[in-house]
Amino acid sequence: MKKLVTDLRNLPNKLIYSIIIVLFSVFIVIYAYFILSWSIGMNTELATYGLGNSEYLYPLHTQYFLLDRPTLAIITYVLGQVAIPYFTLLISMSLLFVSAIIWMVILTKKNFSIIETLVFCSFYLISPIYIFQFNFVNQAIGIGIGFVLTSLAIYHFSLILNHDCEKFKNYVASIVYLFLCIGIYQSFIILFAEGVIFLLILEQLKNIKTNLKVIISILTKILFVSLAALIGYLLISKVIYIFIGESHYLANVYEGWHSNSFSEVIKHLLLYFANILISPLSFTYVLASLLLICFVRKFFLIIMLALLGCLALPFAFAVFLGAPIPLRILFPIPLSIAIVMLLIFRVTSNKKLIIAIACLCLFVNFKQICQLTYSQNMVQKYNEYNLEHLYSILHDKFGNKLYNTPVVFIASPKADNSFYIRHIYSEPFYFNSDEDFLSNVFPDKMWQTSSINHRVYYFMQWLGLFYKLPTEQQIELGKQISPSLAIFPEKGSITKKNNIIFVKLSE
């Protein structure tokens, strides 16, 4: 850390401090709508308010321990579970900017100019993909810390490659920082891999010819640091399981290779990648890929393969799990784009064109950030409207007895036959969001060790709509009687049996 502070003080051009201030101002303006938009979702954010005790809903830090995120659990325990409106997101996004400052130091030490650094930062800092991750407000600060820790791990790894540095201390620092950031969110290992591959590329750019010996040496160091951090992370996770227990979240949500045929997995993955590529969110990613193909002759084969690897790495978990992954897990994408665009900018003679493209991407990303924020706010309001509508129907039907009666909602994300759910997807503000409750409420065991029915229960409590939380056995009963019920809003979609109210929203 002392070395980093020294490097910050010794930045060769004092103008860069003014640029950092201007860049931070632009950064905050672009994310202002997102930062100032405050809403409570149906996921872990509901734990913030401690709305009653439930056998299904563990304390937030315990949830993170169960999900193999020990560092995030400790951060949450220390900071407390209550997210502060506006300031939480401001602090989180500021931490992302701090990670960019560390990258500025790395790039400056690698003799990149101020303009080149600005091109890198414009792609690294501004991306709609971040919205999906930072939207989980109770873990947002932890994620911001994760970006800082990953950048520090990459910074110390860059010092390992310098012959005049204390390698042992930097090895330890890089391993510790990587271990901590993986403990916040597993995808940070991808972010680290992209960063060190970039350092490998820079080492190769120094040479006129490909130096296989240097490549093997650097890859060995990357492997050593990564394995040491991963082994430490896995050991800590196993120790935690002894005291808290193990979550089956990944096994339940990402069935993938172990439960589907090879052809089915490939089919689902191809469809997933196709949907990602045609999404408006992929504009900058596709543009960077096309530009890389156009400049293929400017790079050695090994460098070209490394750059293609950087672009492919964010999807590594999807391939590893054999299942589509949420957009929030793809937050390493902006760094991969920034690396590709920076190196294209360095090798091209038409730098004004790349600057123009960077400005265009800034505008597009700004527009998409606002669209996503608006979309999530509107879906949130629509969720509230739908829940209040359903609750009023139940109250009209059962009266005040509803307050002390468990309600089981039966639904599935594969609800093609449900007009009610398809109607939500057709809403004009539904912009690549998975925030609707109807696609997430169904009686199968998921997330922790329980049903997701508790999401709606706590969300209704937040809205001031009260009923009794159903037990796991009552939810299982709902699954059994589901075939005999009609689909809402048809007659027979709501029934009461064994003093339990069942509402069938889809098959």
From TrEMBL:
Transmembrane as UniProt keyword: yes
Entry-linked InterPro entries: Glucos_trans_II
Transmembrane stretches, start-end: 15-36, 86-106, 112-132, 139-157, 177-202, 222-244, 269-292, 299-323, 329-347
Origin: domain of life: Bacteria
UniProt keywords, alphabetically: Membrane, Transmembrane, Transmembrane helix
Protein name as annotated: Glucosyl transferase GtrII family protein
Organism from which the protein derives: Francisella tularensis
